[in-house]
Specification:
This protein has 160 residues and is mostly helical. The chain contains five helices and no strands. Helix 2 packs antiparallel against helix 3. 17% of the residues are buried.
């Protein structure tokens, strides 16, 4: 049996360690970072907030004393929706599939009573579909907002 010199033994050991290290690096691919999916209620709250902000802006664009109470109620809805948004979540624009409350599709457009009535009707009709899978407290708020929007649509039809 042939004896190994100390130098040969060290050289062989170093090469073995290097081979194991390289093999270990090649086998360990970093896992891609996966962001947690956003909470569905937070996503819905963001959409509701964005829609209410647009609605408030449309009512403000009319500068009509008759329509001011409607705008004030939407401001109250907006404040309550914002209050329910988690502190670490910031409001985001409505998703591309969400209906736009702007009657002309362009921001800054002045709203007519008829366009506001249609907006209120569409918003009220959308609320029942938003109730599925949300907490009871949020479902109650959304249902209440929808009822108010439906009442607005009736009241606005009388102002035309």
């Amino acid at each position: 049996m042939r004896s190994l010199s100390r130098r040969a033994l060290l050289r062989g050991g170093a090469l073995g360690v290097a081979a194991v290290a390289v093999a270990g690096c090649a086998a360990e691919e970093p896992e891609p970072l996966r962001a947690e999916p956003p909470d569905p209620e937070t996503v819905l709250l963001r959409q509701l907030i964005a829609g209410k902000e647009q609605t408030v802006a449309l009512y403000a664009s009319t500068a009509s004393a008759k329509l001011a109470p409607f705008g004030k109620r939407h401001e109250a809805h907006l404040a309550e929706l914002r209050r329910r948004l988690p502190p670490d979540a910031t409001p985001a624009p409505a998703s591309p599939g969400a209906p736009s409350p702007s009657p002309s599709g362009s921001p800054g457009a002045k709203a007519s009573v008829r366009s506001l009535q249609r907006l209120e009707q569409r918003a009220a009709a959308l609320r029942p579909r938003q109730l599925d899978g949300v907490s009871p407290a949020l479902a109650q708020l959304i249902a209440s907002i929808g009822a108010c929007e439906a009442a607005h649509a009736v009241a606005l039809s009388r102002l035309r």
